[in-house]
UniProtKB/TrEMBL annotation:
The keyword Nucleotide-binding applies. GO terms for cellular component: plasma membrane. SMART domains: AAA. The keyword Transport applies. GO terms for molecular function: ATP binding; ATP hydrolysis activity. This is Lipopolysaccharide export system ATP-binding protein LptB. It comes from Roseinatronobacter ekhonensis. PANTHER family: CONSERVED COMPONENT OF ABC TRANSPORTER FOR NATURAL AMINO ACIDS, CONSERVED COMPONENT OF ABC TRANSPORTER FOR NATURAL AMINO ACIDS-RELATED. Keywords: ATP-binding, Hydrolase, Nucleotide-binding, Transport. Its EC number is 3.6.3.-. It is an enzyme of class 3 (hydrolase). Residues 4-252 form the ABC transporter domain. The lineage of its organism: Bacteria, Pseudomonadati, Pseudomonadota, Alphaproteobacteria, Rhodobacterales.
Amino acid sequence: MSMIRVENLHKHFGGFHAVDGASLEIAERSITGLIGPNGAGKTTLFNVIAGVLPPTSGKVIMQGEDITGLPPHALFHKGLLRTFQIAHEFHSMTVRENLMMVPPRQSGENLWDAWFHGARVREEERRIRTRADEVLEFLTIDHIADEKAGQISGGQKKLLELGRTMMTDAKIVFLDEVGAGVNRTLLNTIADAIVRLNREQGYTFVVIEHDMDFIGRICDPVICMAEGRVLAEGSLDEIKANEQVIEAYLGTGLKNKVKDGAA
C-alpha cells in the first residue's frame, strides 16, 4: 500500500528546474533510500513534499489524500515529519526537555489550565516525561538525558532528532543526510534505531544519504535521482548495475571499478 505518491512534480527557481517532473511512490512501512549527486533535486523534493517549499506544479498524495502545498505544521499533525542535515535542538535545554517540548497542545501551554487545573497539567507532564525517558532508552542515549543538548556530539544530536519524531504520532519520516558528520559507531546506532522503528512500530522512512554502506544496510528500495528526475529504482545492487545510473551519477570511475570487480 502506498504511503506517499508523487505525481509529475516540478519545482522551478526562475529558469532552474530543481525538480523536473519527478514521479515516485513510497510504500507503507518501507525504508526507501533516495540517492543522487549534489544538485539532483533530492533535498528540494523533500522540501516540497514536506511543505517547506510550494511546488510549481504536480501533486503529492498521502494515503489517498492530496496534501500538495500544505504547510509543515498541518503535515506534522497528519504524521509527516522531515528532519534536516543539521540538527535543530534547543541548545540550553536538556536532552530530555528537548523531547518533552515536542507533543502538541499540552495543557501547560494554556494559562487557564496552568492556573486552575494544576493536577491535570502535572499528570500530563509526568506522562510526557515517562515517554521521553522511554525514547531515550530505546535510542540508547538515556545516559545523556540531563545534559544540555548544545553540548552533546553531532551523532547524539541526530539521535535526539530521531527521538523527537518518536514523541509524536509519526507515520512517515524524511531523513536528510542523517549520517553527515557522524562517527561509524553512532551511525550504526542510528541505523539500528531506524530499522527497529520500522519493524516494531511501523514507521515509514525516506532517507537521503551519500554513505552507500548505510543505504545498503537499511534501505530497500533505493531511488536514484539525477537532474530533477527519477532515474532508476530497485535494490542497491540493481541501482549500481544500472548503466544510466553509472553514467549519470556514479561516474566512469565506479563504472570501471564495477567492470574490474566483475572480471
